[in-house]
Amino acid sequence: MKFQRTSLILVFAALALGGYVYYNESKKPPQVDEAKSDEKPLFNFKEQDVQALTVQTPKLTVSFEPFTPTIPPNQKGKPQIDRASSWLMRKPEVAPADEGAIAFLLNLLATGKSDRSFSVPAARKSEFGLNQPSATVDVKLNNQQTHRLVIGKPNFNRNFLYALVDPPMNQDLSVLLIPINFQNAVDRPLSEWKRDKPKPSPSVSSPASPQ
Known about the structure:
By secondary structure, this protein is α+β, with helices and mostly antiparallel strands. It has a domain at 40-71 and 80-193. It is 27% helix and 29% strand. The chain contains five helices and 13 strands. The protein has helices at residues 2-27, 31-37, 99-111, 181-186, 190-193; strands at residues 40-41, 50-56, 61-66, 70-71, 80-81, 87-91, 95-96, 113-114, 117-120, 135-141, 146-154, 160-165, 173-179. A nine-stranded antiparallel sheet has the order 7-6-3-2-10-11-12-13-9. The protein is elongated, with a radius of gyration of 29 Å.
């Protein structure tokens, strides 16, 4: 009898413990919802607010500004607007910019978000590749405000990049994880930042006159 009573006590204790654990787990919100609620935009501006853009990498520095290009007047003397590009490269040379490359980067800057950040002393920059950044993006807005994005190395599984947004001087840093797409947006050769010149139409030779 004593053995049966002890067994019953153990069974009821196990059931009570299982019910308590189930109740607490059911009260926890899903992890996905928590991650979404923590997402914060990198910046607070729109693409059309940008007045100037500079991208600096170890290999290249390019700068751009919006412009309204024109082509020679038509036969009636009225200027014609060339809307094939609305951005002009200023450095390292003056040339029409590739609209797709600029739009891709501006969209990431204006809509990009991060759901993870952590504070580290400024002396630990090198651990995240931020002492010698893979890229630095400087933005000047129409209201004369400026912003900076400093991009470091990828994280351990290469899904994100370590980055700093408007980093302070000589203070603890707030390191963010930003989408890996930023790497494709800034790591380009000079040829991909420029708009290809339209190829001339092939000339059509008239058939030779019969002799």
